[in-house]
Fold these 2 entries.
Entry 1:
Amino acid sequence: MAADFFWNNKEKKRVHWLAWEKLCARKEDGGLGFRKLHEFNTALLAKQFWRIATNPDCLLSKVLKSKYFPETDVFEAQVRPLSTATWRGILETRPVVVGGSRWQVGSGKDIHIWSDRWLPRLDTFRVLTAPHTLPMDATVAELLEDEGNGWNVELVSYIFIKEDVDCILSIPLPADRGRDVLRWHQEKNGRFSVRSAYPIALRQAVSGDQGCSLRSPGGRWRFIWKARVPPKEQEDVYHALLECSFARLTWAMSNCRWDSVKDFRGGPEDWVRGVYCNLDGEEFGIFLLICWFLWDARNRFVFKGQKIEALEVVSKARCYAESLTMDKRGAEVQDLAHRAFHGDGGPSARR
């Protein structure tokens, strides 16, 4: 309906030149920033979920809790068979609230160590340590000292890895050990807003379709393309085996006829076929071995960080070629001895 309103006029129906989902993408992601009605409605309902979670003493929270989740909190509430459509809609916004909020530690009694978002870590806000020692329903209160207002450093250091320990011990604790507070980290004041909740709902709606800059959650591609890195070069067979400075230095040290090697036309198969026609058997064998060890050196550097000198590539290729030649000569001698001994075409059989 919204697409028809944008593309059509009163006289006749026009072609929709671009998918409505692309028009609804954010402007920095290549769209026009139109609001998708379903996701915007999700952000509006998420505000009601936020009210229930952060203000349990209001009348709305008390009524819904007594009817739908009397023995738990709203984050663990389940849809019951006779739940109204309004309550079902509110519960469906739970991922949006969870994705945009984190806990501020007070008493620690309302925060679950292993599942809640409470660490000052911008990517996940969760602990990295695998659950052990403490049960899955353990709360942050168990990490605090019984007396005083600090963390139990010995217990924290025993349970968590170093990255988590540093994050936990950096969290300031209030002097009065008041109630844990849920903060909306998308806003500086910590308060929920539909404006900042809508992008979260939009990202979650398209999170299953990754791989292009337009639909990438969080605009990751935007930061990748803006990154200040050395000039980007296309990595292909031609660049890896011929064009890069390391490959050129290797070929120069190999004493191969460069004029016969450098002519890369068509695909890799055409290139190898052309070199084969221009080199003799021994030179062509060296050519193939240098290509092999060049690719091996490239992979070792990219995946293992191991740097290999060009002279080492040439030396490996020549040593390998010599070993193959010796093995071939040894095999010929053994074959000749075998035929002579068994009288099947050897020198003694020809007399």
Note: Residues 272 and 288 are 9 Å apart (CA to CA).
Entry 2:
Amino acid sequence: MEQKSLSEIAKRVLQLMHILPPSETETPRLPPFLDRCAQCNKQLSNRAPIYMYGDLQGFCSPGCRNSRIDLDEEMAKASK
């Protein structure tokens, strides 16, 4: 069984959702919710890994994603 990278799988999912063009010759575009990191607001690229968490939130690094996870956990504890 051929192993595909996570970015290849994500790319195919976005193609199936008609967000990315099917042709490799066209420049693929990211959907609007993946324009910027949900934590630090850094511009995300379709040529670099995007780390996902929660309700379709994209992050530029595992560190940014983990910061948001920690923040969400703290908010959940505070609301109890």
Note: DSSP finds two helices and two strands in the chain.
